[in-house]
Design goal:
- By secondary structure, this protein is an all-alpha fold.
- It has a domain of about 200 residues.
- The chain is about 75% helix and about 0% strand.
- The chain has 13 helices and 4 strands.
- The strands form 2 sheets. It has a two-stranded antiparallel sheet with strand order 1-4.
- The protein starts with a helix and ends with a helix.
- The N terminus is likely disordered.
- One of its GO terms (molecular function) is transmembrane transporter activity.
- It is a multi-pass membrane protein.
């Protein structure tokens, strides 16, 4: 009987979590469904949008954005922002590709080197933000230019080509029917969700973002929290850079341009407040899917890339405006 009662007691908790998730994200879930239905019935996209190949293509395309968006969620919940992630993608990609093509190092060493580049820049961001009162916007704006410049200096402005199959497997390979980047994305989502929801660090991130002074008074080491989050953001951007360089068969010094905007768009559309203190990884996942499906649909309709930027800008503005209205209420 005790076992039966225990099982019954757990059911409402599970149901409540699901209900809370649906209630908190109902608007963006409906938006995603409406977008999918429109693309499924429009003559220009109906024949290809719902195909299995296109579904996996969407997931592969959003994989790099999802990695960055997961970390960006943590940064924005802290009340900060990281503009350097797009440039980290470029620098990590060219360094990793250079390790293989220029120095003939093993793939494993190249992966470690690319990820380490991201971590180093993230650690630098975190250190400066923790030890000074310089706003995160300014710090990461500076490192954005530094990292992009280093990528161009290292490559001379030219791509670093890698044609080995082992390298291409990371960004363009499959395990069964599933693209490798999608598997990496799922692992990153799980790790980030566990960090945010099941660890002391996650609770501290929300506390610091909600009220930094109160968090300090309660004994939370605010500087350490900010440092870890920015280092994690650098790591995710480094991994995204490796995946993108593998998928393009080369490290590109121009890779990742605008990636920080796509990540911020996914986070904001997912319901994370730019004021800090609130947000969920679940919402970010849906937000990244909306951005990915929107990009895919515009490409299938052969919409000019310049207009695609306009559409994404409008989507970000609407999301921020909705967040503003919600905060007022």
């Amino acid at each position: 009987m005790a076992q039966t009662k225990g099982n019954k007691a757990k059911l409402p908790a599970t149901e409540n979590k699901a209900a809370v998730f649906l209630r908190e994200n109902l608007g963006i879930i409906i938006a995603l469904l409406v977008l999918c239905v429109l693309l499924a019935v429009l003559p220009a996209t109906s024949s290809s949008f719902l195909s299995t190949q296109n579904m996996f293509n969407i997931l592969r395309q959003i994989s790099t954005n999802m990695l960055i968006a997961c970390a960006m969620t943590m940064v924005i919940i802290l009340g900060g922002i990281d503009l350097s992630v797009g440039s980290i993608i470029a620098l990590s990609g060219v360094i990793a590709a250079g390790c293989v093509s220029r120095y003939e190092l093993p793939i494993a060493v190249a992966l470690i080197a690319g990820a380490l580049v991201g971590v180093v820049i993230g650690v630098f961001n975190g250190f400066v933000i923790c030890k000074t009162t310089i706003p995160p916007f300014i710090v990461t704006l500076a490192t954005m230019n530094i990292a992009r410049g280093l990528a161009k200096v290292y490559t001379g402005g030219s791509p670093v080509r890698v044609v080995t199959k082992e390298w291409q497997f990371i960004g363009a390979g499959y395990i069964g029917p599933v693209p490798v980047p999608v598997i990496i994305m799922i692992i990153a989502i799980i790790i980030t969700a566990l960090m945010m929801n099941k660890t002391k660090l996650g609770r501290h991130i929300y506390a610091v973002g909600g009220n930094t002074q109160a968090a300090e008074f309660s004994g939370i080491k605010v500087a350490r929290v900010k440092f870890i989050v920015h280092a994690y953001a650098g790591l995710m951007a480094g991994l995204a850079g490796i995946i993108l360089a593998s998928r393009m068969y080369s490290g590109q010094p121009t890779a990742g341009e605008g990636a920080e905007m796509d990540a911020i768009a996914a986070v904001v559309v997912g319901g994370t407040s730019m004021a800090g203190g609130s947000g969920k990884i679940g919402g970010t996942i849906i937000g990244a899917l909306i951005i990915g499906v929107l990009n895919n649909g515009l490409n299938l309709m052969n919409v000019n890339s310049f207009w695609q930027d306009v559409v994404k800008g409008v989507v970000i503005l609407l999301a921020v405006f909705i967040d503003y209205i919600r905060n007022r209420k």
